[in-house]
Amino acid sequence: MGFLKTKGKVIPFNEYKEKIEKYKMHGLMQFVSIYKAHKDRFIPVNDLKWGEEMEYQIFVWVECEDNKVRLQLSNRGPELIDTFNSSELAKGSGLVLLPEFGGWMCEAVPNEPYSSISDPDVLLSCHKKL
């Protein structure tokens, strides 16, 4: 993540704030496009390599005074990561959770990303096209 640039120059916040909704919509459209392209794709945990990670954001359901429910980001990431990594579920999953950018984020990576540390074909298999 870095500065938002257009044509090579940094956009000051007073100019950017007018375009926030446009950028949000563009980001949502990109997400939906990527989701639709890959939603039926399945990679077995044993085939995951380093660099292939699943990133999660942690939310909590909050009931509001008007009886509506909202999602809010939860900063319980470190606590939940420790709980998952020490659970029986983690031991059988082949995954470990690691902290990501903020307390509301975590990523899942394979416990043992390579089945060999000496066979170059196995080590480089993550570069092969699916």
Task: Give a concise summary.
With 130 residues, this protein is α+β, with helices and mostly antiparallel strands. Helices cover 32% and strands 22% of the residues.
Furnish the topology, listing elements before pairings.
Blueprint: E1 5-6, E2 9-10, H1 13-16, H2 20-38, E3 54-57, E4 59-63, E5 69-73, H3 77-85, H4 88-93, E6 95-99, E7 105-110, H5 120-123
Q: Estimate the mean pLDDT confidence.
A: 80
Strand order across the largest sheet: 3-7-6
What class, by secondary structure content?
Answer: alpha+beta
Helix % is: 25-40%
Oligomer: single chain
- Overall geometry: extended
Largest sheet: 3 strands, antiparallel
N-C termini distance: 27 Å
State which percent range the strand residues make up. 15-25%
Uncertain segments are: none
Task: For the structure shown, list the relevant keywords.
alpha+beta; 130 residues; 5 helices
What does this 3D model show about the protein?
By secondary structure, this protein is of the alpha+beta class. The protein has two domains: 1-41; 44-130, no CATH class. 32% of the residues lie in helices and 22% in strands. It is built from five helices and seven strands, in the order ββααβββααββα. It has helices at 13-16, 20-38, 77-85, 88-93, 120-123; strands at residues 5-6, 9-10, 54-57, 59-63, 69-73, 95-99, 105-110. A three-stranded antiparallel beta sheet has the order 3-7-6. The chain has a two-stranded antiparallel ribbon with strand order 1-2. It has a two-stranded antiparallel ribbon with strand order 4-5. Strand 4 (59-63) and strand 5 form a beta hairpin. The longest helix is centred in the N-terminal third of the chain and has 19 residues, at 20-38. The model has no long low-confidence stretch (mean pLDDT 80).
